[in-house]
Amino acid sequence: MKKLSIIIIGLAFLLVLPLGAAAGPIKLTVAEVHPKDYPTTQGLFKFAELVKQRSGGKIVIDVKYGGQLGKGEKKVVEQVQIGALDMARISVSPVTEFVPALEAFGLPYMWKSQESMWKVLNGEIGKRLLKAVEKYRFYGLNYYEAGARSFYNSKREIKAVGDLKGLKIRVQKSQLMLDLVNTMGANATPIAFGEVYDAISKGVIEGAENNWPSYESTGHYEVAKYYTLDTHTRVPEITVASRIAFDKKLTKDQIALVKKAALDTQDYVIKKWNERVQASKKKVMARGKNIITELTPEAREGFVKSVQPLYDKYGEKHKAIIKEIRAAQ
Predict the structure, then answer these.
(1) Each residue's pLDDT tens digit, 253-267
(2) Smallest Cα–Cα separation from 130: which of 88, 87, 101, 97?
(3) pTM for this one?
(4) Would you call 145 helix, strand, or coil by DSSP?
(5) Strands, E, within the chain: which ranges?
(6) Could you tell me how far CA 279 lies from the centroid of its own chain?
(7) What is the pLDDT of residues 91-130, one digit of tens each?
(8) Cα–Cα distance, 10 to 270 (Å, whole number)
(9) Measured between alpha carbons, how far is 42 from 142 in angstroms, rounded to an integer?
(10) What distance in Å separates the CA atoms of residue 141 and residue 156, rounded to the nearest whole number?
(11) Which of 15, 154, 174, 216 has the lowest CB atom count within 10 Å?
């Protein structure tokens, strides 16, 4: 009878333990498609470090980088939504399916600069849209830097939007990107990113568009020496967590701790990104063969005016948020 009482008391004690107080750390997983040394991946390692430190080792985050849990961001975010995966760092693009207003972030020439983008993301607008994902069984943890995309090609220097005319430019399989390039007078050609180097070197296409680290790390700068820094798009990344998984595994205080740690890594990733951009730029310039073109204010205005039809097509339903973003910069 005495042993039975001890067992009952022990079971009662376990039942009143707060969620997450069981023996051993709570293990969470975050998916990342980029390699180990990529700025966003480094940000996730810093995130894991902060969470472990601030939770006293009670919460441990495993960063699955390099697409270990799937290279398709759409499938990954679906796994997060149903609770099969705790967290994922993805582009905001797949999340626009749930929060359409986020589409405004990806419209061409939306952002004046990196600084103005972060002013908006860290302000009322960014916070509101990050919170909006909660309606769809997510927690929005933070935004990450993903750089600005610009045009590069193997044929000629692009000093004005008219210089793009007739060039075959590789784009992602996105209707917006297809329309963007075609509207500017070039010929949008959707092919796999891994095929771009060979396609340019063999003359199948003349160029592509991407950020400095991608231009350098892929070797595209070797076959497309003309790089025009028009910075037509800046699409931030986002880290989302599963509300189903978090609410099951963590207390409210622990969820708040994880959210705060995620936000505290944003500046770290921006710093890492900017360092990576400078390193890529240095490597390309050291080659001594590439022509890097900065647009004059007048030339940039020409690029901006050329994409107005896209705002008529894609921006009509986002007039209010576009107005807010522009005013907040």
Answers:
(1) 999 999 999 999 999
(2) 101
(3) 0.86
(4) coil
(5) 26-32, 59-64, 87-91, 138-144, 149-153, 168-171, 187-190, 207-210, 226-233, 237-242, 291-293
(6) 20
(7) 998 898 899 999 999 999 999 999 999 999 999 999 999 9
(8) 49
(9) 15
(10) 42
(11) 15
Taking only the tens place, the pLDDT of each residue in 123-174 is 999 999 999 999 999 999 999 999 999 999 999 999 999 999 999 999 988 8
Pairing mode of beta strands 87-91, 187-190: unpaired
Sign of CA dihedral 214, 219, 224, 227: positive
Cβ proximity of 325 and 104 under 8 Å: yes
Could you tell me the two tokens for 164?
């793009």
How many residues does this entry show for the chain? 329
Backbone torsions φ then ψ of 225, nearest 5 degrees:
-80, -15
Name the amino acid, one letter, at 167. L
Residue linked to tokens 């009662």: 12
- The residues pairing with 241 across neighbouring beta strands, listed in sequence order, are 87, 139
With a cut of 50, say whether residue 4 has pLDDT above it.
Answer: no
CA distance 69 to 76: 7
Amino acid at 212: W
* Positive or negative torsion for Cα 14, 15, 21, 24: positive
Give the integer Cα–Cα distance in Å for 284 and 212.
Answer: 9
Chain position carrying tokens 């231009």: 215
CB atoms within 10 A of CB 313: 13
pLDDT in tens, 221-246: 999 999 999 999 999 999 999 999 99
